[in-house]
Write a structure and sequence with these properties.
GO biological process, one term: protein O-linked glycosylation
Strand content: 15-25%
Radius of gyration: 30 Å
Bound molecules: 2-acetamido-2-deoxy-beta-D-glucopyranose
Signal peptide: 1-31
CATH architecture of the domain at 183-410: Alpha-Beta Complex
Cofactor: Mn(2+)
Largest sheet: 9 strands, antiparallel
Number of strands: 26
Pathway: Protein modification; protein glycosylation
CATH class of the domain at 183-410: Alpha Beta
Number of helices: 17
Structural class: alpha+beta
Shape: elongated
Subcellular location: Golgi apparatus membrane
Distance between the termini: 92 Å
């Protein structure tokens, strides 16, 4: 070969350069392929061998071009993602060298070849990392990341992707026996611009805790993320994980649409929809599967524990807990010892729940499809879980929280992305109200006047959902309220006795300052909001019911007007009873026969107790002073059924 080369040099000196160039190229290619091969051999010795070579198009990556009705599209102005092309740039750290500290995380050194240790060797949780705020140095980076994600990503990055949660299950759970032939499961995790550490910790947490024989697959569904690392390096990372598939949508689908897409691609008998920032407690899956296997129309949730957004500390949620909503259609987890029955099994017995949160839900795949999946008309985020919950109950299923299953959910400080439209939540609420609440929807519209005004100018297209409701033979909302959620107080909203409580003397409205919580507290006076947030009603029991739950009652503590939890006894105590004298506008406290009056700061009489020196609502001997004159002002008049 060298002789041939020599002759070539003699005969055509001019092409020498070209030949040398080619030779050099060949040598480099050889060296490179050797390197890659060595890397491959090397990785075969690892506990989780990659299932395919590092180069080439990942087989498990599906790019979904959604063909939904364009009318349903959001006004989100995002450039379409050319997923496949971008994913072939596997080892190009998209933001290397950037000076912007906020984006520095995009380089993610753990992903560079040879350094991606986290994909392969599960690191044991370092001791002391739980329940301890990590030493924080880079305050600026931190606060910009809090801004970006709604939680402290700097702290999250320092915590192992394989951390183990402290045991929080009731000791009786360890004695529970589960069937040996539980159904196979697809865990569907939708994400949109989730932070790298929290997303991967969710995935690893499922892989580390779900028994292999039941875990069919983990489906990661990318709802059109825009962050660089999710576009480029994620598919490479996922290709090293057994049983994890990545699906990308090229249109923004929102939570419901994204989960429905994942469900359509899932092969497991049971679907577990999981938010992209969760951590599973050991043994969380079996108790859920057991309940679904026993009754395929049962939809179940674990106890949702809380991960603190600042410290990533784990907080166990108190049992019993169930999901509820109020008349503004806002969701809450309600921890109520009264829910617990007195029997000895109550620590391990599932509790039926009027609604479930969206964090983690397990549902039989066929039942999910037959009951109508998620409502495709829901926009982006919010309310989809309340809609599914009411539908499941009304159309033949049931919901429950299973106490021996626990999954922790990262509570966000704020939503990591702003809605393209502030009224988006209202539009989703309108869909729920109009589809499911029959005439009871008027109660909602009075407490959310923005929704009322939107509804007056546009109607949701719920034709398909009403058809579904008919064809499934679903029951009405009255049945749901009386059978499933009898604890929800049903307001009477009588004309002239409900609305904002307007004070003539001050031109302001009675107000319950936010943040005092569901236990009650002092009433005050504030500018009339007009939003429905100050709505109250005087009912036929003579209670002044306050708040979107209607569970707080106007009460008197010393001379101060306060809110207290309403009594469940009938007739109610005279301490909680009021008469409204329409002619004078006086609101008279039954027990004391004193009148409700607005007192300004400093305008208190000498005799008043020391702790009530600030202004607010007080009980005073009745006069005809305008500060004792009140009207119930109805803000809106929603149309009937
Ligand atoms: C977790 O618990 C601690 C102490 O009990 C409390 O201060 C903190 O607010 C809790 N965090 C969350 C997110 O509930
Ligand atoms: C509502 O949606 C259905 C199908 O989903 C469609 O046939 C109908 O034309 C729509 N109605 C309006 C008023 O857009």
């Amino acid at each position: 070969m060298m002789r041939l080369w020599g002759r070539a040099i003699v005969r055509r000196r001019k092409v020498l350069c070209l030949w040398l160039l080619l030779l050099g190229f060949a040598l480099v290619t050889l060296a490179l392929s050797d390197l890659l091969n060595r890397d491959r051999v090397h990785s075969h010795q690892n506990p989780v061998p990659p299932r395919r070579p590092l180069q080439g198009i990942p087989n498990d990556l599906e790019v979904i071009v959604d063909s939904r009705d364009p009318a349903l599209e959001l006004g989100v102005d995002l450039a379409p993602l050319k997923s496949l092309q971008e994913d072939q740039l596997l080892f190009v750290p998209s933001m290397q060298g950037t000076k912007n500290p906020q984006q520095r995380k995009g380089t993610y050194k753990v992903l560079l070849p040879g350094a991606n240790k986290d994909t392969r060797t599960p690191a044991p949780p370092t001791h002391g990392e739980m329940g301890k705020a990590v030493q924080l140095e880079e305050r600026e980076v931190e606060s910009s990341l809090v801004q970006k994600y709604g939680f402290n990503e700097v702290v999250s990055e320092k915590i192992s992707l394989h951390r183990r949660l402290p045991e929080a299950r009731h000791p009786e759970c360890f004695g529970e026996q589960y069937s040996e032939s539980l159904p196979s499961t697809s865990v569907v995790i939708c994400f949109h611009d989730e932070a790298w550490s929290t997303l991967l910790r969710t995935v690893h947490s499922v892989l580390d805790t779900a028994p292999k024989q039941y875990l069919q697959e983990v489906l990661l569904v990318d709802d059109m993320s825009q962050h660089g690392h999710l576009k480029s390096v994620l598919s490479e990372y996922v290709s090293h994980l057994d049983g994890v598939r990545l699906i990308r949508s090229t249109k923004r689908l929102g939570v419901g649409g994204c989960r429905t897409l994942g469900a359509a691609r899932a092969a497991g008998e049971v679907l577990v929809f999981m938010d992209s920032h969760c951590e599973c407690q050991k043994g969380w899956l079996e108790p859920l599967l057991e309940r679904v296997a026993q009754d395929r129309t049962r939809v179940v949730s674990p106890i949702m524990d809380v991960i603190d957004w600042q410290t990533f500390q784990y907080n166990a949620t108190q049992w019993p807990v169930r999901g509820v909503f109020d008349w503004r259609l806002d969701f809450y987890w309600e921890s109520k010892p009264e829910l617990q029955e007195k029997d000895p099994d109550s620590a391990v017995r599932p509790v039926q729940s009027p609604v479930l949160g969206g964090g983690v839900v397990a549902i039989d795949r066929h039942f999910f499809q037959s009951v109508g999946a998620y409502d495709p008309g829901m926009l982006l985020w919010g309310e989809e879980q309340i809609e599914l919950s009411i539908r499941v109950w009304s159309c033949g299923g049931s919901l429950e929280v299973v106490p021996c299953s626990r999954v922790a959910h990262l509570d966000h400080h704020h939503l990591p992305y702003s809605f393209p439209d502030d009224e988006l939540i209202q539009r989703n609420k309108i869909r729920v109200a109009d589809t499911w609440m029959d005439a009871y929807r008027k109660i909602f519209y009075r407490r959310d006047t923005l929704a009322h005004f939107i509804r007056q100018s546009e109607s949701p297209n719920i034709t398909e959902r009403l058809r579904l409701k008919r064809s499934l033979g679903c029951r009405n909302f009255h049945w749901y309220l009386t059978t499933v959620y009898p604890q929800l107080y049903i307001p009477q909203d009588r004309p002239a006795l409900s609305g904002e409580l307007y004070n003539v003397g001050t031109g302001s409205c009675a107000d319950y300052p936010r943040g005092q919580g569901p236990k009650g507290g002092a009433m005050n006076i504030a500018p009339c909001s007009g939003t429905g947030s100050q709505h109250c009603e005087l009912n036929s029991e003579l209670e002044v019911r306050w708040g979107p739950m209607g569970a707080l009652c106007l009460d008197a503590k010393d001379e101060r007007a306060v809110l207290s939890p309403c009594s469940t006894h009938r007739p109610t105590s005279s301490r909680l009873q009021w008469t409204f004298i329409k002619l004078s506008g006086q609101l008279v406290h039954q027990q004391s026969q004193l009148c409700l009056e607005v007192l300004k700061e400093g305008g208190l009489p000498q005799s008043s107790p020391k702790e009530v020196k600030t202004g607010g609502l007080f009980l005073r001997p009745c006069t005809h002073h305008p500060r004792q004159q009140w009207h119930f002002e109805q803000l809106v008049a929603p149309k009937g059924a």
